[in-house]
Amino acid sequence: MCEEHGTRSGPRHHPNRRGLLVTGAAAALTLNGVSFASADEHESTSGQESGRSSGQSSRTVRGTLPTGSPDYVYLPMQVPRGVRQIDVSYTYERPQTPPGTPGNALDIGIFDERGTQLGGKGFRGWSGSARREFFLRGDDATPGYIPGPIRPGTWNIALGPYTVAPEGLAYEVTIALTYGEPAAAPKPTYPPERARSRGRAWYRGDCHLHSVYSDGRRTTAEIAALARAAGLDFINTSEHNTHAGHAAWAEHAGDDLLILLGEEVTTRNGHVVAIGTDPGTFVDWRYRARDNRFGHYARVIRSSGGLVVPAHPHATCIGCDWKFGFGHADAVEVWNGPYTPDDEVSLAEWDNTLVAGAPSWIPAMGSSDAHRDPDLVGSPQTVVLADDLTRTAILAGIKAGRSYVAESSAVTLGFTAVGGRGQHAGIGERLPVGPDEPVTVRLETTGAPGCTVHFVTDQGQLFQTQTQTAEWRTTAAYAAYVRAEVRHPPVVPGLPGPLAAFTNPVFLGRR
Predict the structure, then answer these.
(1) Most buried in the list 28, 152, 229, 417, measured by CB within 10 Å?
(2) Up-side HSE of residue 68: CA atoms within 13 Å toward CB?
(3) pTM over 0.85
């Protein structure tokens, strides 16, 4: 039902009014639209003199979405000329459901008059289910939304019924337009692409973080302060399905902290972190694996200078398990936040891919995915060997696998392989030795007391010790690669202990 100040009613918005739109992306449904008076008409009917008062007009839409609803439901609204600000609020019912049955969860966002087409220019913001209201204006917007012109035309409220209870999802959306002179859009500024360098060195970073610009609870200033306190050299912004926060980070960068820009592309079949994209890059998320669209958007990330990194591929949340395969991945987030069984599964699955060897292997990463207290920024963190503390150098180090993952900045690793004739190779590199030439693998660890060191090859774990400096001898015929793990004592008898750190592999033998 449509209402204006609670006095005007119209037809209820049933989900079958306009039918399904299937265009090579996730199925969508378009509802009947709502319209508003122009600024002049509004002033005339409300008895105001032109220019003396901005005035406001609102509409409320109610409806119910059944189980099995499309992934996205669009509510068109006709925005007239003379609008200064758009405000949207919504609510939905959350009935109790039996154990194991998902309840209602409804996401929300907005597209402007340029349309809702996949990968188009109409995107103006998304907050998922983290907020119940938002606004857009020329000079400002709710975090997660993009300030800019409020142009006339057909805008669309985007609803995402993430999960629907058996009895359906009853919702109510209220749209309010404020009339008046538009405010000018500010020119965005972005963080610099370099920070103070130590030359070729190991740089520590956390590439998966959330602020108030999506479903996090920390401000950008708080995250930057926590990153510095955690001993990080770089971070990457990764808000869910929006780039709206990119310009909010410029004031928090400095010589001691490189801030990369990105997005967590949150689809219904898994999440992917875009790392280090060009400022203002938006990556669409409205597709499933069956739609055969992920390859295109992986190329969008790369064409903007970024890396494609599937996140928490075996997480247990609905829609989090990675279904797109790893053919387009530049790296994979094996360790996400506090070490849990799904990380152990991700580590094992990643290890199973390494026997293919360079150059086709996919490096591993770790990030905190921190949202709020008590989530620890920088736990875990990826430690990258890079030529410089710049966007280009850090991304090159990650993509090459010249990195290890540690639970904190207290943990450091040095991992090398040396051939019988003095050849050397480090993490992410290949030691070009003959199949029977002797190879000495050495790990030096600091900051991990009480932990055990494990050397893992394509045959599995072949060496273990409790000393912080470990050496092991092998050949390329016996081990196609070697990587190191540093683990805490087991929490559950008979199962591996949580990781304190692990490395990407050193490959042995000539290609």
Answers:
(1) 417
(2) 2
(3) yes
